TrEMBL record, chains A, B:
<comment type="subunit">
    <text>Homodimer.</text>
</comment>
<dbReference type="InterPro" id="IPR020630">
    <property type="entry name" value="THF_DH/CycHdrlase_cat_dom"/>
</dbReference>
<comment type="function">
    <text>Catalyzes the oxidation of 5,10-methylenetetrahydrofolate to 5,10-methenyltetrahydrofolate and then the hydrolysis of 5,10-methenyltetrahydrofolate to 10-formyltetrahydrofolate.</text>
</comment>
<keyword id="KW-0601">Photorespiration</keyword>
<dbReference type="GO" id="GO:0005829">
    <property type="term" value="C:cytosol"/>
</dbReference>
<dbReference type="GO" id="GO:0009853">
    <property type="term" value="P:photorespiration"/>
</dbReference>
<keyword id="KW-0378">Hydrolase</keyword>
<dbReference type="InterPro" id="IPR000672">
    <property type="entry name" value="THF_DH/CycHdrlase"/>
</dbReference>
<feature type="domain" description="Tetrahydrofolate dehydrogenase/cyclohydrolase NAD(P)-binding">
    <location>
        <begin position="217"/>
        <end position="365"/>
    </location>
</feature>
<protein>
    <recommendedName>
        <fullName>Methenyltetrahydrofolate cyclohydrolase</fullName>
    </recommendedName>
</protein>
<keyword id="KW-0521">NADP</keyword>
<comment type="similarity">
    <text>Belongs to the tetrahydrofolate dehydrogenase/cyclohydrolase family.</text>
</comment>
<keyword id="KW-0511">Multifunctional enzyme</keyword>
<dbReference type="InterPro" id="IPR020867">
    <property type="entry name" value="THF_DH/CycHdrlase_CS"/>
</dbReference>
<dbReference type="GO" id="GO:0004488">
    <property type="term" value="F:methylenetetrahydrofolate dehydrogenase (NADP+) activity"/>
</dbReference>
<dbReference type="InterPro" id="IPR036291">
    <property type="entry name" value="NAD(P)-bd_dom_sf"/>
</dbReference>
<dbReference type="Pfam" id="PF00763">
    <property type="entry name" value="THF_DHG_CYH"/>
</dbReference>
């Protein structure tokens, strides 16, 4: 049974993902993602309502590709982080732990997805995650709802999953259809099953020193994992995080602070992003603009994590496009000491961290050490 | 009835603070405050547990006082922000609003304090806030519990206040006695009455772009208020926040980001804090070390907010000490374009913002526009 056929059912829960076939493994995101936050009138007493959208420099043709011809292979000096290999090592450890749990207490971690509507990219994301669950022995399930589902219907599904003891993680795949209030839906996911780590309670506890959220967003955990596995000492290092998504930039900046890194946050209003970035030992790029971070933005020896996954039209590409990151890889590789490529960089490790969060949740639920 | 006599009662609720006399208005905080977070063993999979205490440069005698003799009055060029005057203007507006609410719907905002134990400084803080409530017509009340109260007793008091419709703000005065779990107590305060803004749900919603917390921590609101009242354009400006307390530094850094400022966060592990600070258009110092930020740390024309309130022994002082900030005022005033003094700087505006949060909460509860 594949995901397309699941769409035909109004609501269908599959016990495990091992029968799902995959259409594609390519992760596709919009080239230029505008934040949908509304520009609200400024109020003098209440200082919120200032969430103007991030508008990064417009895409000129020069941005779409960087100086891929300017380098020779022998000039490369950065270590290219193999995210897929690292993810495989983490997954192997998780699989061992899941096996140990099954043998010891006859229980298995469970991860449930809620998928509303028929967006191809959302389906692809969920498929990839379910396949990853399957490989390590985590029981994944999916609840599919048609795009016209009411918000109450979605909330009921989430509440059911919250109270299902076999489910240890609940992911509502975003974005939801426009008529749904994403904030309300995300808020209803139990913080104790919020393996994405996007619930404000978990984000607040991540921000607050001395507290522990139930879950840290997977991409942020993945960034730190990559740094630590590369032997980078974080304490006292300068990090620049470019962007401010809740998925990568915000939680990564909070987690880096908890590791006693000195963090600077570059946004689309920053006047001289390249100057600030050039001072950083660690750069995390999360803007959604292909090749925005050029080689001359980087301090020699910087550790560069590219969180961008931009689909750029390419008639020679397998699907009419190719994927590129937010960092001009060909230039950066000549300056940085290490860099995550796109694809095969941060993405696979992020998925491994989702499995890790789910395992942790099940361990907590069963008090399994 | 003064607060000392209140201590004799095991639990006593006062309807309004207007009968309370004040011992002193001096706010006393430890000179050198170590974060009490535990250093927990590092775990490879779960990357938390790294909250080592902030240890800022040790206090040398040269730190305790800065070059107060090096400047002449005519060399001063910074505007010295009169926090008391600004607070008075804000309070006047709040008083008008409270009057309007009383006239229109016969309701009054209510703020309740929970005070456990007999710390003089805590009593003083609460007295100051209650007097401020009284001046604008907000009904304040206090529940005093002896230091040996159990955590359950404290939690019951907080729960009662949560469900009391006449109470729109609940403040548990910190620190609590050592046997209490502050995190659990703060978590029980209803996010809708958390006028301090310290609840992780409110902090998370402050961190998450596009979301609105019920309340923003008062000192952070006060910082932005001071900047905006001074006509500072925040978008695209560089700000440096030194420190990371949940009271000032963390929420201020989050709020500055929401105002599209480029924020760098300096902590006690930052190797060259002065270099980073010297690049900032806006500096917020919140470290608890007297005079740590020297004149040569500042970019000429910087806007400096000093959130420190350090009691430094002084035999000539009225109470055997004098108050000083984290910024060497005498040096900074010659470099900055504006600076908040200590006292009479950020403190009074922070209290005004507490009143503002309480008024907002009552307006929300009564749907009063």
């Amino acid at each position: 049974m594949n995901v397309i056929s699941l769409l035909l059912g109004r609501r269908l829960v599959i016990g495990c993902s091992n029968s799902i076939k995959f259409k594609t493994f390519l992760t596709i995101s919009p080239i230029f993602e505008l934040n949908s936050s509304n520009f609200m009138a400024f109020q003098r007493i209440n200082h919120l309502g200032l969430d103007v959208p991030d508008v990064w420099p417009s895409l000129s043709s020069s941005n779409l590709s960087c100086n891929s011809n300017s380098h020779a292979v022998d000039k490369k000096n950065a270590t290219i982080i193999d995210g897929k290999e690292i993810a495989a090592a983490i997954k192997s450890h998780i699989a061992d732990e899941v096996t140990r749990m099954k043998k010891s207490i006859d229980k298995c971690p469970g991860l449930a997805f809620v998928l509303v509507g028929e967006r191809n990219d959302s389906h692809t994301f969920v498929e990839i995650k379910m396949k990853a669950c399957d490989k390590v022995g985590i029981a994944s399930s999916i609840v599919e709802l048609p795009a016209e589902s009411t918000q109450d219907e979605i909330l009921r599904v989430v509440s059911d999953l919250n109270s299902n003891p076999a489910v240890h993680g609940v992911i509502v795949q975003l974005p939801l259809p426009h008529h749904c209030d994403e904030e309300k839906v995300v808020n209803v996911v139990s913080p104790e099953k919020d393996v994405d780590g996007f619930h404000p309670l978990n984000m607040g506890n991540l921000a607050l020193k001395g507290r522990e959220p139930y879950f840290i967003p997977c991409a942020a955990k993945a960034c730190i994992e990559l740094l630590l596995r590369s032997g980078i000492e974080l304490v006292g290092k300068k990090a620049v995080v470019i962007g401010r998504s809740k998925v990568v930039a915000l939680p990564t900046s909070l987690l880096l602070q908890r590791h006693n890194t000195t963090v600077s946050l570059v946004n689309s209003f920053t006047k001289n992003p390249q100057e600030i970035t050039r001072e950083a030992d660690i750069v995390v790029a999360d803007v959604g603009v292909p090749n925005m971070v050029r080689g001359d933005w980087l301090k020699p020896g910087a550790f560069v994590i590219d969180a961008g996954t931009n689909a750029v039209k390419d008639p020679n590409g397998k699907h009419g496009f190719h994927l590129t990151g937010d960092v001009c890889f060909e230039e950066a590789v000549e300056v940085a000491s290490a860099i995550t490529p796109v694809p095969r960089g941060l993405g696979p490790v992020t998925i491994a961290m989702l499995l890790c969060n789910t395992l942790d949740s099940a361990k907590r639920a069963y008090n399994f050490v």
